[in-house]
């Protein structure tokens, strides 16, 4: 039953944006009472998720939801429209906000962090801007809230207030603002000058009358202008942001920021260029090679990092380019794999970051070399890390299996065998830099530690942290056995299908 059926359907879009914004105001108002403040956070997150579920229900029933807020220029305004790809992103972000809030309560208290009210407030503002991005009806609306997301997360990156945090924040803000203004804004202006519209439309807004050379340039501008997708060489902001508290890292890597980047690229490909038009552009293959290079180079860099969060950061750079590559393959099934990877990577990577934070709180260890035998002290946390790692690698029975499967099939369908090779090599590199961590924790012991293990020696992180990482671990398993709701939603995206007909040539491009 739809709990919001008494509300005008289009007003659900307003609610999805306003609820976390109002929640941010209430968090500030109750800041002197931590228990009430955190109750407000959890209630707000839960209410938002219920609104997104209602929007999802309308989407499955074919109900169109649109909302025009303002039109300062005739034919160009702030507008919102619900479509399946945006609903998928909204579901992931709103659900994980609940889990991340539970985690953050345990982490911020267990780590005795200062400025917790500011933290929860900015978190809510970031989610509000994410909802606006999810349901943007045109490029202007997306651009505005893309920038709002950058600004609202800056205080989170610099939360610690020390020199390292300030330096990381400058890199974060500098790269994301410069790329969006220098490249993305230029791409949007170019699109408007060519078509007279910025609206997202099924099949794209370009046609045969537009110069392929100009469109090729626009594609590069969009790919690099959307800096949150972390395509090399504009990826440095992401590792730099690792100075933030772990709940912020989870927000950056799984819930909001990076997913807003790859979501925006996927949306531009599907609703601005169109998959058919994309196939004919000269720079599509160039960006595919750059995406493939980003996957492999960042994976190799990850292997060299002893700091756990740094290793996970470069892993995220790699995994984001899976989605970019899936979009640029201009294949129906590859686009489906890219969309599904938004969800599967989210639950896998947030589990890994939750575990990194749990280790920090309980054992004060940051470096992987110090985690030998840690499975005796933190068996639940390290087991969850193993589950998240297997999902990121893409092995059964974990969620990442399906998105990587569809991406591989899509690469074969597009006759891009070098992308197939990239995906396979990347998975092997994932094994090399992720699996040794839980293996060393459980099967290697510190010198002099040979007595049988007992539960009495466990020293896990606070309960809210364990609850959160346990839920996301279960999510990795659940999305392997029950991916159908997400796949059904993805199949509603125009031109995208997990059931694409294809004839695979074994003599494709190398």
Structural features, described:
- The structure is a single chain.
- The protein has 510 residues and is mainly α.
- The protein has one domain (11-509).
- Helix content is 69%, strand content 3%.
- The chain contains 21 helices and two strands.
- A two-stranded antiparallel sheet has the order 1-2.
- Helix 3 runs antiparallel to helix 9 and helix 4 packs antiparallel against helix 5.
- The protein is globular.
- The termini are far apart.
- The relative contact order is 0.10.
Question: How are the SSEs ordered, and which strands pair?
Answer:
Blueprint lengths: L10 H19 L4 H27 L5 E8 L2 E6 L2 H27 L5 H19 L4 H19 L5 H33 L16 H14 L11 H4 L5 H10 L1 H17 L1 H4 L3 H23 L3 H21 L3 H32 L10 H4 L1 H15 L6 H14 L3 H18 L1 H8 L19 H19 L2 H7 L20
Antiparallel strand pairs: 1-2
Helix pairs in contact: 1-2, 1-4, 2-3, 3-4, 3-9, 3-14, 3-20, 4-5, 5-6, 5-10, 6-7, 7-12, 9-14, 10-13, 10-14, 12-13, 12-18, 13-14, 13-18, 14-16, 14-17, 14-20, 16-18, 16-19, 16-20, 17-18
């Amino acid at each position: 039953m739809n709990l919001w059926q008494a509300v005008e359907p289009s007003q659900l879009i307003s609610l999805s944006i306003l609820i976390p914004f109002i929640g941010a105001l209430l968090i500030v108002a109750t800041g002197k009472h931590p228990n009430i403040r955190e109750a407000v956070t959890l209630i707000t997150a839960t209410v938002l998720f219920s609104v997104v579920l209602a929007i999802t229900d309308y989407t499955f029933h074919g109900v169109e939801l649109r909302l025009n807020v303002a039109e300062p220029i005739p034919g160009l305004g702030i507008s919102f429209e619900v479509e399946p790809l945006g609903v998928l992103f909204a579901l992931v972000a709103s659900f994980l906000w609940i889990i991340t809030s539970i985690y953050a309560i345990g982490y911020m208290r267990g780590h005795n962090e200062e400025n917790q009210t500011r933290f929860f407030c900015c978190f809510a503002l970031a989610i509000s801007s994410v909802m606006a991005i999810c349901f943007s009806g045109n490029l202007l609306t997306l651009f505005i809230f893309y920038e709002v997301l950058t600004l609202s997360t800056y205080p989170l990156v610099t939360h610690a207030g020390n020199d390292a945090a300030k330096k990381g924040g400058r890199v974060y803000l500098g790269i994301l603002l410069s790329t969006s203004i220098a490249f993305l804004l230029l791409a949007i202006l170019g699109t408007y000058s060519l078509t007279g519209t910025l609206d997202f439309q099924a099949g794209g807004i370009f046609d045969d009358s537009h110069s392929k050379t100009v469109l090729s340039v626009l594609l590069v501008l969009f790919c690099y202008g959307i800096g949150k997708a972390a395509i090399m060489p504009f990826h440095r902001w992401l590792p730099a942001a690792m100075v933030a508290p772990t709940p912020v890292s989870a927000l950056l890597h799984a819930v909001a920021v990076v997913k807003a980047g790859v979501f925006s690229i996927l949306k531009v490909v599907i609703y601005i260029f169109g998959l058919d038009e994309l196939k004919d552009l000269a720079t599509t293959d160039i960006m595919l090679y750059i995406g493939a290079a980003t996957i492999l180079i960042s994976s190799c860099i990850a292997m060299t990092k002893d700091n756990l969060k740094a290793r996970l950061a470069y892993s995220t750079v790699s995994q984001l380019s899976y989605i970019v590559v899936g979009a640029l393959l201009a294949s129906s099934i590859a686009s489906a794999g890219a969309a599904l990877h938004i969800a599967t990577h989210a639950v896998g990577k947030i589990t890994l970051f939750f575990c990194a934070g749990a280790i920090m709180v309980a054992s004060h260890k940051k470096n992987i070399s110090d985690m030998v035998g840690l499975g005796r002290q933190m068996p639940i946390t390290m087991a969850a890390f193993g589950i998240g790692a297997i999902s990121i690698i893409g092995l059964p029975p974990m969620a990442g299996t399906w998105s990587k499967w569809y991406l591989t099939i899509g690469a074969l369908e597009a006759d891009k065998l070098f992308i197939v090779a990239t995906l396979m090599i990347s998975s092997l590199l994932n094994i090399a830099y992720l699996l040794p961590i839980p293996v060393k924790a459980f099967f290697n012991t510190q010198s002099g530690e040979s007595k049988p293990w007992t539960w009495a020696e466990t020293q896990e992180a606070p309960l809210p942290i364990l609850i959160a990482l346990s839920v996301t671990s279960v999510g990795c398993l659940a999305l392997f056995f029950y991916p159908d709701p997400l796949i059904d939603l993805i199949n509603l995206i125009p031109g995208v299908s997990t059931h694409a007909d294809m004839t695979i040539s074994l003599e494709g491009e190398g």
